[in-house]
Amino acid sequence: MATDSPPATPAADGAVRYEVADHVARLTIDRPERRNAVTWSMLADLRAAFARARADDDVRVCVLTGAGERAFCAGADLAGMAGAGAFDLHEARGELARLFQDMYALGKPIVARVRGYALAGGFGLALACDMVVAADDAVFGAPEVDVGLWPHMITVPLIRSMPPKVALDLMLTGRRVDAAEAARIGFVTRVVTPAELDAAVDELAATLAAKSPAAVRLGRDAFYAVWDQDVETSLRMLHPLLAVTAATEDAAEGIAAFREKRPPRWSGR
Q: What is the pLDDT of residues 56-67, one digit of tens each?
């Protein structure tokens, strides 16, 4: 059932779309003529769109994608980002870091729908999502080293999505990885044909949206909280969270529904 929320305010350059239906918010980078390369203003608009999804109780899952068939996101629009002073550039680059932080702290699953190129910052955007569904024509890479730069800002999502030395290989060589290799490495969840991509993403989003919003939020937050912690610290954090989760209305409803052999009716509390 579609939400009654009005459409989000579009980006200043009209390049970010936001739509909600069936508890799923779809964020679309809409610059297919530029392979969905992002500008500084678009990073701010993506942050605003995720903030809107976070605040909307009707939204249980987000899908991040790029318009057209050529690219999910080919990284930064270097031409569109030229002309600023060094300090302004430094501050603007921090917007990508803030976007990654917003995504990790969203409290709701994010699925990347990838068709075509996911390069540089676009590679990082895909891997900052919780799950990645890719068409078999998808291409991933961090080519910054080839122009004398380094993919500093996407290091965190890369090393959180694959063995660190594999991430270093990709950053040092700048080589591109197809969808099949990405699945073998482990940073792509599912690979399908282009014709199957929308159905696969919709099926996964619907599966996630059917889960308890309370359990998903508490569990996802816990997952990211203990990611880099040692075993003792992790277990000390997770133990009380089990009690919190078990005390939610959704947990009581889920157990009742199981006993009564009926679908649960989640409240998200």
A: 999 999 999 999
Taking the C-alpha atoms of residue 129 and residue 14, their distance in angstroms, rounded to an integer, is 23
Catalytically active residues are: 144
**Cα–Cα distance for residue pair 217/106, rounded to 1 Å:** 8
Q: What is the pLDDT of residues 216-257, one digit of tens each?
A: 999 999 999 999 899 999 999 999 999 999 999 999 999 999
Query: What are residue 20's DSSP bridge partners?
Result: 25
Pairing verdict, β 16-21 and 24-29: antiparallel
Sketch the domain layout of the chain as residue ranges: 16-209, 213-260
Instruction: Name the E strands within the chain.
Output: 16-21, 24-29, 61-66, 71-73, 110-114, 117-119, 131-135, 139-141, 176-178, 190-192
Determine the Cα–Cα distance for residues 123 and 139; give it in Å rounded to an integer.
9
May I ask the CATH class of domain 16-209?
Answer: alpha beta
> How far apart are the C-alpha atoms of 26 and 175, rounded to whole Å?
30
